[in-house]
Task: inverse folding
């Protein structure tokens, strides 16, 4: 039974007081190395329950990798629990003791007596030194050869131990023939179920590479994961599938892997020789923040206005007062006037505007909470506008409206006009 | 056997491509309610393995709470696996179907056929409606009465379902005798180790309530956690400790619990009868976004400018061209001129400005990456300014600079002038 499961030990994890970032990091290292992770667990500082979980994992996998609970305090019980699970006692590892004393010396203080217990490891262990802390890690074996690896829970101690000691050992043990390589295809302007319908048969036909569809706040990603001996072989496996997926999703794909929608917009602006401005009401600065998150944003971004007050819409963006009075701030006319006004105010070639009701208050039967008008305008007067009704709380409306505005700008830059 | 275990479903979790924030959030809600969580798990989109884990959990606990894998795609298998584990088949829930069709209608498009399967739930389920998405949740029972609750994995859909539907049901089922009540004291302008030093002896003296110090992006929180049968008893335990902590941190405490720095600023503005404007360079809209995240922001926020280009600083904010040429955009003089210019441009009583080098490029020996100038100015000309050097990548600099700007505004409104 190949593969491993991961166990994070610590009652604070069960209280939700700490987000466990160790487990995803270890999982990433293992999957990139081609070692399968079949499950991950968090469990409290309870000797019996840890031992029972270790036994369960070893009944179905080749190994268990534990983090946390190796410290000197009374609620650090991982080592004792592993001994219970495997029917082992502990023995003092002189080398571990010497190294611990050296670490304390480097801190300029003597080693407290209760740290001594950290140098006692399950009999037969292969110790892993900890240059960044006092608790050594170890790998220990069940009578049938399956293994349990234990590392400290402090990320700055665990990560170097994993990279320099555990991972090389695992690579040798499993000699994985293949690693997992991932390509992500990002889309905008098409829903998850539509994406799914268009590429559904590819899921069934393809076992390697595998395909997954993931929705994020108004965007949909398609993930292609190939198991291959090296990156060239992975590319050969991924490329034809990627082409087919992109053919089926033509017009919606804005980028790959680490590329963001803001990056895609910046590239399109650069190609068109345009600098953009923003005019925001309900998104309240988030659209500008998404654009300026990128390094080098200043090359394609002039600036923006957050026109919360109608007086600002009039004074800074030149929205006509009668239009505001007649159609209201949340209207096609005002969105378009804001976008055109931003082109003028910032001497920009193109501008994008948002005006809507983020909620929770301010909705009416005609203009409910979540209703947002968007407009993109060019300095020559070419304008498009859209109306969308978003569901969810204020933050969800603001976030999705920001994504939608970037998507609309990107589609406009690709030539979409209706 | 009281208590529950949590299961997050999704192969991407085992590949470490996604940090699971649902599980800690649910754990927090449960522990606050006094319901014990004995373990948490993540598992891939594999029908057999999900079913086997559900059976294992029900063998030792009263219930399992699952998130994820309820979508319409072929790799969403949670419902099928739960049916396998409990020996049930599915039946169509008309109410769930009606609600899903309504959600699609509000999106302005017909429901794709493959979404229909989401309205089929395990026989005997108690459905949980999903006003924020298409997949309904449900609670279903084993023949011995133990339960499995399933919710969508998208946080914006899961959280409202947990709060409004699952948690009240669990509270009734478990009738916990004592819950954990938490009070968070928020501070700004004082570091974690300073907070720690000032209240250190309170940690040792107090077992219930417990105290924890947590640092977040330039702010420091003190958390007081009391185990008590009801909120009145908790309040009696927390109040004296809270007073003592606040006495020791006098001048730095801006709020409690859900109060944000933006809320504290809004309250101070309201009391002072002022409306604020923003003028941002390096924070690129994040300061405005932090202010407008609050419902009702329009009452104390006029609007803002993102003055990325120097031409915008001159045209929209009236920053003198010679000042920009002589001192550079990242300087005390420009920060102060931006704040004063924003008061004028937005007819605001007070304004806050940021100008700095977010990086990774643009640093010089004199003005390194991370250097930011801040200014607060009132319409009458009263101005304060500060220079801070932040460490970290672009996003860290932008985030911390945003927090610092809000903190400076809050301190100014409390009368700090030097």
Result:
């Amino acid at each position: 039974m190949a593969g491993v499961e991961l166990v994070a030990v610590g009652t604070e994890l069960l209280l939700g007081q700490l987000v466990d970032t160790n487990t995803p990091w270890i999982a990433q290292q293992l999957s990139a190395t081609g070692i399968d992770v079949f499950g991950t667990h968090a469990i409290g500082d309870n000797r019996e329950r840890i031992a029972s979980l270790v036994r369960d994992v070893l009944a179905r996998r080749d190994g268990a990798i534990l983090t946390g609970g190796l410290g000197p305090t009374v609620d650090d019980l991982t080592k004792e629990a592993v001994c219970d699970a495997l029917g082992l006692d502990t023995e003092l590892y002189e080398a571990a003791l010497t190294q611990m004393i050296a670490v304390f010396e480097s801190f300029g203080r003597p080693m407290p007596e209760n740290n001594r217990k950290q140098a006692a490891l399950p009999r037969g262990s292969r110790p892993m030194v900890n240059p960044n802390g006092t608790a050594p890690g170890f790998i220990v074996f069940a009578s049938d050869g399956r293994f349990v690896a234990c590392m400290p829970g402090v990320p700055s101690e665990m990560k170097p131990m994993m990279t320099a000691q555990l991972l090389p050992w695992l690579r040798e043990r499993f000699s994985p023939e293949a690693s997992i390589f991932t390509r992500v295809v990002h889309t905008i302007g098409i829903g998850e179920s539509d994406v799914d319908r268009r590429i559904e048969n590819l899921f069934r036909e393809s076992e390697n590479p595998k395909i997954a569809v993931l929705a994020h706040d108004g965007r949909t990603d398609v993930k292609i994961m190939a198991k291959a001996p090296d990156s060239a072989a992975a590319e050969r496996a991924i490329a034809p599938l990627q082409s087919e997926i992109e053919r089926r999703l033509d017009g919606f794909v804005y980028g790959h892997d680490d590329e963001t929608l803001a990056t895609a917009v910046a590239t399109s602006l650069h190609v068109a020789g345009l600098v953009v401005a923003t005019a925001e009401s309900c998104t309240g600065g988030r659209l500008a923040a998404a654009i300026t998150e990128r390094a080098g944003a200043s090359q394609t971004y002039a600036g923006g206005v957050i026109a919360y007050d109608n007086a600002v819409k009039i004074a800074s963006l030149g929205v006509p007062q009668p239009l505001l009075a007649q159609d209201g701030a949340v209207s096609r006319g005002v969105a378009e006037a804001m976008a055109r006004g931003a082109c003028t105010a910032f001497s920009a070639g193109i501008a994008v505007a948002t005006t809507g009701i983020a909620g929770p208050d301010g909705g009416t039967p005609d203009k409910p909470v979540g209703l947002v008008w968007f407009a993109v305008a060019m300095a020559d007067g070419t304008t498009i506008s859209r109306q969308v009704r978003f569901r969810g709380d204020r933050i969800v409306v603001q976030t999705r409206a920001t994504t939608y505005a970037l998507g609309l700008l990107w589609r406009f830059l690709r030539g979409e006009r209706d």
Summary: Chain A has 14 helices and 17 strands. The two ends of chain A are 57 Å apart (CA to CA). Chain A touches chain B through 92 residues (CB under 8 Å).
